[in-house]
Amino acid sequence: MKISVIVPAFNEEKLLGESLNEIKKAAAVFASRGWEYELVVCDNNSTDRTSQIARDAGAKVVFEPVNQIARARNTGASIATGDWFVFVDADSHPSAELFGEVAEQISAGKTLAGGVTIRLDTNLFVAGVITQLWNYTSRFNRLMAGSFIYVEASAFRLVGGFSHEFYAAEELDLSVRLKKLAREKKQKIVILHRHPIKTSARKMKLYSGRELGEFFLRSIFNHRRTVRNLEAAFMWYDGRR
Description:
This protein has 241 residues and is α/β, with parallel strands linked by helices. Helix content is 45%, strand content 22%. An eight-stranded mixed β-sheet has the order 3-2-1-4-7-6-8-5, sandwiched between helices. It is globular, with a radius of gyration of 17 Å.
């Protein structure tokens, strides 16, 4: 068994090094089972030291010139050689316990893909409430958060990977397509929750309440147009770090 951990990264020199170190420590769980693993970073047209930091960490680095998270994840997957893909965001820290749970799901042979609940790295009341609402929705509807997705490589390829139509919420679209495939194959989508992934709350600090509120309102009342529009999804692409 081989696991490919794939990290999309756009101008992530501030957080990438620590995230990769945490991933490598957690990935010792795979080695303890006699499994191989590789670390793949997709540099999504960065203008900082993202690529060099990734290479210094021993990652395989691939370049994607079009700024789009879906494309970055797909480009990373295109050079990955694992039997399973684990997508981790550049500002997120998976634990050894989480990777251990993923390994258990893979070994059981009944799971096609899945995700995990989220824990923010900073205690912010409003952000905490939103996170808890998301965690409930994620588990109830079996929707995967982009910060951590594990999926059988053959299934990922079969559904066509992440859709390039989306500049945000591309993981929700992938979740829907993988759930359909799981039903057809009589397998499961499993959202883990015992060991949430620690992820950055930086958007809550970098953007004003008005900016955040306007984006979420657009997402609620005009979801399809908002997540398909680069300008509307500015929080992922304007380079604020």
